[in-house]
Amino acid sequence: MPALKICFELAGSCGMIGGRPNQALYFVGYVDDEVLYLDPHTTQRSGSVGQKTTQDEIDFDATFHQRYAGRIDFQQMDPSMAMVHFLFKFKYYCFFFL
Question: How many whole angstroms separate alpha carbon 13 and alpha carbon 30?
Fold first, then answer.
């Protein structure tokens, strides 16, 4: 568990993809011994947000944002995961691959 917490704290970390048995999740961080996640399978209606000048556009735009992230204990995570990093400098690429 301490190694997973360090992964979240690395420069350029964008989280992890993985889940728990029979459920794929996108992990974005942690609080104490719980992992914060978003469910990438949340569906919404299709349409255009536009300039958000009408109530319909404002309501539709709200469907793209989650108010709260889900939480599960680190121990409930499936051990098959992939780290997601944005390597915005060459030195970070070297850290991971050289």
Answer: 13
